Amino acid sequence: MVRALLVRTARALSTAWLIASAIFLLSRSLPGSGPRLLTDEQASPFGQQATTEARYQQRLGLQTPPFYFRLLPWRWHGTPNQYHSWLTELAQGNLGTSFRDDMAVTTHLRQALRLTLPLTVSALLLSAGAALLLAQWAVHRPRWYHWLLVAGYFLDSLPLFVVGMTLLLVLANPDFWPLFPAYGLPAAASPAGTLSWEMVPYLVLPVAALTLTSVPALFLPLAAALREQAPQLYVTAARAKGASRHRISWHHLLPNVMPVFLTRLADLVPGVVAGALVVEVVFALPGMGRLLAEAVAARDVPILVGGVLLVACVRLLAWLLADFTSALVDPRLL
Amino acid sequence: MFRSAVIGGLLGGILGFTACSPSAPPQSASGPTVRVCWPRDPESLNPVTLPNAYAVQANNLLYQSLLTVDGPTRRHVPWLAAVLPVVERRDSLTYLHYRLHPQAAWDNGQPIQAQDVVFTLKVLNCPGLPNEGLRSLVSFIRAVQVDPADPRRFTLVCRGYAPEYRDNSGEFPILPEYLIDPQARLRPVPLQLLRQDDSLVSRLAPIRAFQEEFNQASRWRDPRTLRGSGPYQLASWQSGQQLTLERKPRWWADSVLPRKPALAANPARIEFHVVPNPATALLALRRGELDVYPHMPGPDFARLRANDSTKFRFYSPASYRVTVLEMNVQHPALRDVRTRQAVALLVDYKQLLRATQYGQGQRSTGLISPREKWAYHDSLPLRAYSPPRATALLRQAGWQQTPAGWRRPEQATPLSLRLFYSAGDRTFETIALLFQQSARAVGLSVTLHPTESGQLSEIRRNGEFDLNLRTLYGNPFAYDLRPLLHTSSIGRGGANRSRFGNAASDHLLETLYTTEDSVTKKRLLQRLQTLLYQQVPFTPLFFEPNRLAVSRRFDQVRPSGLEPGYDLPAFSLAPAQP
């Protein structure tokens, strides 16, 4: 088992490296993908544009070739290339600095995660809890199961933007119930600072939006799996032995559907660090989603590659954990 | 029992949260707090970087330049300078004689002197700093001559001559040497040396040490370092969330009388709230969590004006941002001027204004705003939407209408134009759809290509488009249109994306640049406008309005068409309504 785990970890790490390398090389090689100082709307003084851009590229270290070689036509560049420099820095745990403000990528990621983690972790835990309870409750109530299924599919079909805006327009609107703040965080709260209880009212609507849209993704497959297991002989046998409905649900059915639940949960885990862009935009929260989206728009490649590397690592880790836990529940799966 | 406790708890929580909801900001005895909505973060407050308009706005509250722009009068006025500079032309050089304000001082009480201007120019010319944009703007300044008799007098020595030098020479922020270079590493390095080859200069030890110090990102978030001669100081900056500036308790211009608008600084505290979603920003404004909402989307502006006019004042002065439909004049199908004229006649300008600007934008015959009456060529008629004339022009250009579309006898495929624009821009999407519809009515095929902005830039630069939608930013001061229209600006050398131009138009642009006499300049500008009107490298669709909503708590908004569109330091509390 340890050997299998080690092999999977090695595979996961090499996949993360491949993903980050692909993003790094694509962002440096494709035409129009690099950062530019002057946009089409901004004109430099006459005759200065090329020099200004060249100085900008020079400062960011983009004047060297992107990789060790060029394929067409073939040319060997050697180690003075952007990929080699990035890899050397990465090996020392340095993800580089942002093209926009020269701040370390790790600082940017850390600040964004300070906001994103409370938001997404609480939404994930609430979703997981709600999905488990609802699925267990509905499995023995066919009529309710039907209506919950309809509600689940309806919620699943709603875009997150619609759910977020609806909550905002109903619960933060001066024309309806202005119960919660409309946006942002309290003035004293800072992504760089510590978390405080003052933040709670500001996070209620974003967490609610994320939870409402995540529950169906967990509830629907879990409820379906539970329904599939319910007529099995081992359940009938347990019932014949006098086991209560509660015991059958939690001790007999649940372990058998756990792999389904864990796999779905593992799919949602990367969102914990990737942030929830839509919710962050709607509620003006400076989290990971907005950091990465703004990095893409500004061609801030170090932030983008750092963020993607982090998300890829978390995704792979989540898969590993899901495999490991599923194997614990059912050793045949290893 | 349990249910009652849960319901009670929920109600209590909700009431508690409601109590936590933000209310009106505290008003200091020294001035009000103004809360402004920004759609994005300034990204950097480094005074030599200024990556976007929001960074520029914040910077103008922290630092001062020699001159500033008075929005409502659309003129440059002295700021750190005592008066406007005196211009002297000698041989091939221009001398701009400046005198700094006699009371101008840094926060440590030391007077602001000519040496600070020299230091600033050294920083702006120093290689390896994120100063590329400003460096190119001051590249015409060759040297600074400090008056030995008066440390506040100096002369900027400029290469060649252009009327714009007077205004441009005063537009960079003056930096305090005592905070930015306390070791005085740049002092022994002459300005002329910094203007030499970057690779040579970067090898010098004092330059390397200065670069290392200057490029520490944390410095430009530290209120102790990020401090200029402006009336405000940084209180806090939470990236992507909020930037707060506080009025300095003692500012050098407090004692200057009579008080001019440029030296006003009434709010005690200015908060910039980053709210990227317009619907959320509108809600926050209506809840009283924001006071100023600039650049409002048209539908929100119209709705708010109709429903909440008792709480807000509304302004919509025409800006200097013009949206154009650009044509690639080197594209084989568009090489004939009659085809371009026909395309321009297929734009339903009035419908576009109604659909995208809610009737508030301003039409124009060219790139010059109709507000600039002296320069605007009002004898040219506004181009009208006219499919019959467009059809006639297409025929004159050799196109024949067939069931498959417009075709030239020698061409196998019918004419089909590709219209590129920035993906996700709702205004551009609407314009593109309406234009496609109008073109289809005369049998002309237009395919729409919403494209990611970086890729779009590359396509425009390489001339790989037929038509393209673009917004151009202008101002009422400079009429140097060479970066936009000169043949040297085609491709990577500038921003001439229509690839328009020939020797005659280049000569006209160069003469216009160097002409000072206003009568001659007006004549040349009219010639240029006529040329562009006839040649149609682009057709201007409209000048966008600066839609602005401000809480009625405030007075002295001083709206203008120039960025940011309002005079924040002039804001004062409005007298209470009876």
Task: Describe what this molecule looks like in 3D.
- The complex is a heterodimer of chains A (334) and B (578).
- Chain A has 334 residues and is mostly helical.
- Chain A has helices spanning 2-29, 49-59, 82-91, 105-138, 142-157, 160-171, 200-229, 233-240, 245-268, 270-274, 277-282, 288-298, 301-329; strands at 69-70, 75-76.
- In chain A, helix 4 packs across helix 7 (200-229), helix 4 packs parallel to helix 13 and helix 8 (233-240) runs antiparallel to helix 9 (245-268).
- The model of chain A has no long low-confidence stretch (mean pLDDT 87).
- Chain B is α+β, with helices and mostly antiparallel strands and 578 residues long.
- In chain B, 31% of the residues lie in helices and 20% in strands.
- Chain B starts with a helix and ends in a 5-residue tail after the last strand.
- The chains are: A mainly alpha (334), B alpha+beta (578).
- Chains A and B meet through helix 2, helix 6, helix 7 and helix 12 of A and helix 1, helix 4, strand 10, helix 10 and helix 16 of B.
Question: Features of this protein?
Answer:
heterodimer; A: 334 residues; mainly alpha; MetI-like fold; two-stranded antiparallel ribbon; 2 strands; B: 578 residues; alpha+beta; 5-stranded mixed sheet; 4-stranded mixed sheet; 19 helices
- Ranges of chain B with pLDDT <50 over ≥5 residues? 1-23
Report the CATH architecture of the domain at 105-333 in chain A.
Answer: Orthogonal Bundle
- State the order of secondary-structure elements of chain A, H for helix, E for strand: HHEEHHHHHHHHHHH
Give me the number of helical elements of chain B. 19
State the distance separating the first and last CA atoms of chain A. 8 Å
CATH class of the domain at 105-333 in chain A: Mainly Alpha
> Helical element count of chain A?
13
Structural class of chain A: mainly alpha
Secondary-structure-derived class of chain B: alpha+beta
Biggest sheet of chain A: strands side by side, in what order? Answer: 1-2
Question: Runs of chain A with pLDDT <50, length 5+?
Answer: none
Fraction of residues in helix of chain A: 55-70%
CATH homology superfamily of the domain at 105-333 in chain A: MetI-like
